[in-house]
## 1
Amino acid sequence: MINYTFYCNRSDSGTNITPNYNHKKDNITTNPYEVSNVCTYALPGTFTAKAIVERGSLAAETRVTVTVSPATGSIDLKVADIKFYDENAQEITTIPANKIVIVDATVVNQGTAATGRDFKVKWFIDGAEVNYAMQPQLAAGETAEKFMFCAYLWNTPAGGTHTIQFQADADNQIPETNETNNSLSKTVTIGVPIQ
């Protein structure tokens, strides 16, 4: 049986297995074993990808240098809209009391370059964080898929006025040309048409 361990950035020549590996497959007979899309390098730099192969008491390692160049073009994530839907995914214009409402944000990369990595999105109601997710990377000009990572199921209260806020790239991991359009808020009143 063979054990394979992969690291995205480990430059030493050792064959000891450390807990910070990026992919591991143990007790298989596949030889050679290949993986893809294990490493995502979001920032420019030079990295050392490494694989360790163990068979019985034998161990070997191999390394390859990976150079990531700065992205060409620009990235600009924009939260273009927030819409509300009923449980049948039909858009609604009035928020009902005591119901489950789908709140969905439209996020578009209006830049000329892909984001190059996934990014965190967050929902807030009346200033309190209520949900977060990882939005898969977006190509230049791409809009995030509807009802997926930018959606939130809101169990509406009996009444009142509430501010719904959505943030794209909530942890500022994507270098953008415009960081001021990553958030959008809507204030709604239960039982009153949305303005």
## 2
Amino acid sequence: MLAFGRSSRSASSESPQETALRRFLADGRLPLHNNRSELELPRQVIGRKNWLFVGSDDAATVNTTFVSLLASCAIHRLEPWEYLRDLFCPLPEWPSRRILDLAPAYWLQTHSDPTWVSNRRFWSA
């Protein structure tokens, strides 16, 4: 009988989750998720399953590099396919002392450089 008394009291009181749910249902502008990390979780879970069998340590290193590069594109609001296309064309002839200019953090600055624009016709052919 004591357990029944506890459950009836808890059912009649409003929990913090119920308050948040009511607020969410009342205002459609509120996001259903609680933060950005929750949005990224499915990508990591799927990736972990896919990356379990990458083949070798070298393949894992390459995979990690690309995942980091694409995550950096997302942080800097760059479209990944466009970035990779424009990255791989000049890469063989790019001076090694300026390799960081090709990083997503500096991409827009490098991409708007007059030298880049004048040489781009050779890379896109």
